[in-house]
């Protein structure tokens, strides 16, 4: 008899295999063993050497995970699939192996999932990776990007996360094949139930198993499916990089896959019913859902997906409002529609069946014509487009950032009113009927405001003009009248002098001083600066004579402390009622001294708001305006500086803070007057380019907290691309703003 084994040995040796017996499990067993035993080392070595099938160590493969991989390959119609510990791990492994490891170039969809975009951007910085982004809904643009240089990989999403923009997989497959590039499609949102990209020509199909495939919100996983060569490369990555999907997660995914088609069909049916209902709701101007006939890619959705194209749903009221709930897409306990942020890599993956947004062009609303469509025009266009207004950009210079925005429906070159005002007016009159019933005019610079105001009687039968007549605008812009009225209202101003007698003023004023114009645009175009700075009497006399025809005044320079610039911004209706008001504090400007804002914070100061309202009321002004103040520490007063009877550069800050001035002006112009809501104070607006340039010169006020970006919006990347071109081969936009 052999020696009796101790309990510890028996425990270790027992239950190492299932008891014999007939019957095959309906559900594949969960095999969690990390190691696998063989009756000889030789057989184990054969498995290690891939000479015979089998399992030896969990990182090399497990039966449960292999069962999931076989199922995924069958679903996707590929030769093989390899599973990873997350969707991001799958993407990182594939893109690196397919392209980056060998120095290959990648052309990627511009509006991919935010975390993938962040990964690609990091690779571009840390590894000098050759990754370019392109609008994948524009097949011609993709073909151009592929032709621009030898490309190893074209990477897109079947349905973009989270914007629900569709890619034409068959057309892109042909483009990739013609360029000799591997074509990879992330089909997470579509799943194999709606589309099988490999059948349309894709070489590789990627999934985040975390989402719809598992469907229960209790697993993280990813997969890469393709040919045998792709599977071999991915298997090598899971072994060496250690990101192989563990068997328990694989078993849960298999469980979830059993109901994938049932869930997807039901979710799509529900989403279509919800989308149809919301699309007819009076307070919702756009529902972004490809299953609706109103969606611009509806025909592609029907052709490619065979029906409603995604069960995903979002509400959006502001481009930069963070989601209140963040749960995995596709989980059975996904929340109802929530607000969603689309700000780059922080994009949440909130699961909801449709994207509801306020940016549908409504045929019930007249168009808006935005003149001089650069940074200011961009903010105006985005504001109005978010309410369903069709925005038309008019500009003599095609390099304006606003013209590159998706918020703009049409772009037209027009005469510059500074060069030929009559031609500008004739241009409007000749084309007015083409833009529908009396479009609303939004000039964004003084010369455009004045040109419209001077020809109001001619233009008004064809257009709506949401600001005061010429007499009032001219008076507001005349610094001499402005400061006279301010004195009557006992609103303090910087020490200001008439230039009717330059020699007399030169003797009396304190230096350094400035000479500033009533109409800044003409002054800038002639002299290349916003003001003259005079260090002594002779300079002031000379400068005054050079600008004698521009209605200038002389002013002592106030030693304004950092952050001492304030503005009262408002929309005043024709009856004199203020429908929305906001105070912003300019923290940084570029260039320093007399530049334009690059960092502004919302900071409500009652005294400034009161003085701003008073000066506008005294002139009888109605419309959007910015009343500028500076803080004088010597007098401990906020001094009135200027009134801009128009929209201005950082108008995006009050818009994001709840005081949507362009919309208030538009709504009032069409007889649907609205009041602004509650102000969200403390947001910071930043013009990225100038703030970054200024940061090279000194330490700045921080751009922390909730930030409103002037240009970059991942849902609207064109303006940022145009800004890069303007600093490079395209050349600078003509306007100093």
How would you explain this protein's 3D organization?
There is one protein chain. The chain is α/β, with parallel strands linked by helices and 737 residues long. Among the domains are: 41-260, Type I PLP-dependent aspartate aminotransferase-like (Major domain) (Aspartate Aminotransferase, domain 2); 495-556, Dna Ligase, domain 1, CATH 3.30.1490; 565-705, D-amino Acid Aminotransferase, Chain A, domain 1 (2-Layer Sandwich), CATH 3.30.470.20. The protein is 35% helix and 17% strand. The protein has a 7-stranded mixed sheet, sandwiched between helices. The chain is elongated, with a radius of gyration of 32 Å. The protein starts with 6 loop residues before the first helix and ends in an 11-residue tail after the last helix.
Condensed summary:
The chain is of the alpha/beta class and 737 residues long.
**Rg to the nearest angstrom?**
32 Å
CATH topology of one domain: Aspartate Aminotransferase, domain 2
Tally of extended strands?
25
Secondary-structure-based class equals alpha/beta
Shape descriptor reads: elongated
Question: What share of the residues lie within helices?
Answer: 25-40%
Quickly name the level 1 CATH class of one domain.
Alpha Beta
- Beta fraction: 15-25%
Q: Could you report the average pLDDT, rounded to the nearest whole number?
A: 86
Low-confidence stretches: 313-327, 335-362
Oligomer: single chain
Write the layout of secondary structure elements.
Layout: H1 7-13, H2 41-48, H3 63-76, E1 80-84, H4 87-98, E2 106-109, H5 114-126, E3 131-134, H6 139-148, E4 153-157, H7 169-179, E5 182-186, H8 191-194, E6 204-208, E7 222-226, H9 228-241, H10 247-257, H11 260-279, E8 286-288, H12 298-305, E9 313-316, E10 354-357, E11 368-371, H13 375-385, E12 391-395, E13 408-413, H14 421-431, E14 440-442, H15 446-454, H16 456-459, H17 470-477, H18 479-488, E15 496-498, H19 502-508, E16 513-516, H20 520-527, E17 532-534, H21 537-546, E18 553-556, E19 565-572, E20 578-590, E21 596-602, H22 606-619, E22 623-632, E23 637-644, H23 652-656, H24 661-669, E24 684-686, H25 688-695, E25 707-709, H26 718-726
Helix pairs in contact: 3-10, 4-9, 6-7, 15-17, 19-21
């Amino acid at each position: 008899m052999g020696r009796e084994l101790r309990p510890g040995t028996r425990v270790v040796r027992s239950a190492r295999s299932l008891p014999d017996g007939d019957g095959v499990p309906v559900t594949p067993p969960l095999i969690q063993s990390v190691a696998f035993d063989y009756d000889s080392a030789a057989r184990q070595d054969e498995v290690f050497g891939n000479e015979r099938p089998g399992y030896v160590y969990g990182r090399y493969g497990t039966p449960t995970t292999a069962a999931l991989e076989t199922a995924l390959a069958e679903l996707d119609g590929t030769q093989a699939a390899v599973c990873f510990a997350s969707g991001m791990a799958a993407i990182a492994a594939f893109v690196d192996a397919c392209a980056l490891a060998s120095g290959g170039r990648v052309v990627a969809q511009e509006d991919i999932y935010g975390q993938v975009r962040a990964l690609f951007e990091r690779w571009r910085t840390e590894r000098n990776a050759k990754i370019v982004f392109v609008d994948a809904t524009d097949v011609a643009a993709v073909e151009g990007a592929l032709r621009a240089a030898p490309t190893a990989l074209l990477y897109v999403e079947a349905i973009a996360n989270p914007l629900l923009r569709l890619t034409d997989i068959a057309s892109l497959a042909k483009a990739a094949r013609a360029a000799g590039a591997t074509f990879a499609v992330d089909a997470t949102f579509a799943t194999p139930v709606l589309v099988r990209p490999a059948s349309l020509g894709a070489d590789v199909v990627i999934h985040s198993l975390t989402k719809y495939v598992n469907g229960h919100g209790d697993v993280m996983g990813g997969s890469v499916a393709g040919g045998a060569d792709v599977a071999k490369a991915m298997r090598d990555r899971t072994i060496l990089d250690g990101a192989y999907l563990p068997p328990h997660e694989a078993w849960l995914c298999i469980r979830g896959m059993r109901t994938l088609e049932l869930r997807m069909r039901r979710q799509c049916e529900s989403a279509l019913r919800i989308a149809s209902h919301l699309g007819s709701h009076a307070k919702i101007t756009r529902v972004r859902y490809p299953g609706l006939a109103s969606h611009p890619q509806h025909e592609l959705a029907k052709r490619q997906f065979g029906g409603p194209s995604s069960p995903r749903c979002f509400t959006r009221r502001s481009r930069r409002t963070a989601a209140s709930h963040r749960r995995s897409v596709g989980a059975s306990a996904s929340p109802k529609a929530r607000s969603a942020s689309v700000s780059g890599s922080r994009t949440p993956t909130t699961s909801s069946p449709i994207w509801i947004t306020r940016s549908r062009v409504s045929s019930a609303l007249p168009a808006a014509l935005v003149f001089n469509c650069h940074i200011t025009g961009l903010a105006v266009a985005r504001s109005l487009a978010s309410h369903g207004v069709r925005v038309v950009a008019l500009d003599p210079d095609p390099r304006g950032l606003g013209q590159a925005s998706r918020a703009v429906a049409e772009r037209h070159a027009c005469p510059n009113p500074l060069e030929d005002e009559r031609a500008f007016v004739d241009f409007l009159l000749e084309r007015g009927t083409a833009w529908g019933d009396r479009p609303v005019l939004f000039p964004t610079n003084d010369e455009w405001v004045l040109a419209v105001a001077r020809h109001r009687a001619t233009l008004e039968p064809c257009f709506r003009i949401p600001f005061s007549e010429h007499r009032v605008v001219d008076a507001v812009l005349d610094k001499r009248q402005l400061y006279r009225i301010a004195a009557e209202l006992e609103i303090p101003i910087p020490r200001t002098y008439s230039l009717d007698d330059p020699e007399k003023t030169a003797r009396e004023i304190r230096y350094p001083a400035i000479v500033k114009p009533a109409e800044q645009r003409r002054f800038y175009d002639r002299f290349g600066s916003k003001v003259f700075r005079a260090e002594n009497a002779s300079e002031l006399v000379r400068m005054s004579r050079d600008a004698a025809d521009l209605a200038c005044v002389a002013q002592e320079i106030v030693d304004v402390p950092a952050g001492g610039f304030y503005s009262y911004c408002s929309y005043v209706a024709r009856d004199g009622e203020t429908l929305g008001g906001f105070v912003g504090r300019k923290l940084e400007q570029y260039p320093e001294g007399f530049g334009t804002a690059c960092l502004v914070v919302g900071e409500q100061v009652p005294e400034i708001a009161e003085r701003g309202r008073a000066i506008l009321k005294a002139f009888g002004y109605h419309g959007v305006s910015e009343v500028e103040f500076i803080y004088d520490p010597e007098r401990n007063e906020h001094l009135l500086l200027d009134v801009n009877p128009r929209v201005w550069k950082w108008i995006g800050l009050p818009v994001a803070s709840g005081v949507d001035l362009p919309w208030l002006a538009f709504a009032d112009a069409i007889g649907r007057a609205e009041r602004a809501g509650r102000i969200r104070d403390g947001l910071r607006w930043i013009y990225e380019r100038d703030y970054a340039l200024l940061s090279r010169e000194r330490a700045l006020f921080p751009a922390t907290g909730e930030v409103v970006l002037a240009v970059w919006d991942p849902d609207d990347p064109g303006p940022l691309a145009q800004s890069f071109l303007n600093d490079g081969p395209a050349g600078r936009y003509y306007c100093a703003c």
